Amino acid sequence: MKNLNAGYGFLKVLWDVSIQIDRGEFVALVGPNGAGKSTTLKTISGLLPPQSGKITFDGQVINNQDCALNCRNGLSYISEELNLFTGMTVLENLEMGAQLLDDKNKMEENLQFVFELFPRLEERVGQYAGTLSGGERKMLAIARGLMSNPILVLVDEPSLGLAPQVTEEVFNALKVLNKKGVTILLVEQNVTKTLKFSSRAYILEKGEVVLEGPSSELITNDHVKQIYLGT
Hints:
This protein has 10 helices and 11 strands. It is α/β, with parallel strands linked by helices.
């Protein structure tokens, strides 16, 4: 993202935001409620058209490009709302995530991969998504997002509303995913955990990037410690 401005009608949310993510990185975008974190992900994914600036993905400018085409080209967005098909089974939700794959053999391969990542989903493969626990729904949303074989995964607030143990499971799965070569941009309010798991981070406040750098350095930054870590 280069000097990106975006918002909703007359309400401007992002002000000249620039973010660089290299292939294979685990990058976090953190900040308070209303800072524009989710708006950033929606703009990258193609759900929200930018007002100005440039978004480049895998060497191609994707401003105003349809989100389905972005998905086909390797960009997966896992929203905070999850958007699961609650009246469909776990397996059917996962199959929906693979609809854009041309190689159906790849779907079976991806299915085995997400079951390794989240064994609990394999145990509940025939269960309706609407009957899963909150943590299981988060796992299913992430797993479905991986079924399209993405290059870059945008993950919005995966720990929201989860118990600490389940949060740890979800973060560990994201770490494993990144080690397997998938690039991750993570939006989170759990700053301490996010900075421990990510390699680099951007701090977004009032629609502007106020800090950026290696997560190991930001976690000791005075501003971050005072505002986000309470120390």
